[in-house]
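Q: My labmate handed me this sequence with no annotations at all. I'd like to see what the chain might look like in three dimensions before we decide whether it's worth expressing. Could you predict it?
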Amino acid sequence: MSKVWEIILESFWPLFTKGLLVTIPLTAISFAIALVIAVIVALIQYAKVPVLTQIARFYIWLIRGTPLLVQLFIVFYGLPGLGIRVNAFWAAVFVFSVCEGAYCAETIRGALEAVPYGQTEAGYCVGMNFAQTMWHIVLPQAFRNAFPALMNSLISMVKDTSLAANITVNEMFMTGQRIAGRTYQFLAIYIEVAFIYLMFCTVLSLVQKKLEGVLSRYERKDAA
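A: Here is what I predict for the chain of 224 residues:
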């Protein structure tokens, strides 16, 4: 038993470091790009832009209807057959961004539609165009409504990054696999990996709770 604890203690820092240096950056970069995609796709649908609305809906339908792991394999293992080779890390960033963008687009679209249309009309009345109205009036309110769901998506993405190990990204889960394969302590190491993921997600949950409190105070001020 003492040997198991020794292995756990020795492996904690390599696992935690890999999480900070690969898992968290992979999540942060992917989610930031996903939010940009989501806002654009949501606004296209909200504005009912001809042709682009159909393309946006097709994108959401396609991405939400296919497994994330299959998407990773198509990009990393499939595209080289067409002569397109992508670094494993950036292949993962691309897939996670595109996939999460589809889900977040629906979250933001729903939040946009929850904002009373009178807010948009008010923007037009003071001389704003569509882009200015969205940026200054509608989107801030929509993001406030969508914030809990978007944070849930971010927390989920932290865990989903473990799938990147399947396309050779040397992130935290792959490091855990290698340590487990070398020490044969599969149960202990995988529990340790799960615990570190739990640590990261717990921190994000606390950040979410704190920011929700800040947003609720702003909402009460606006209501007053």
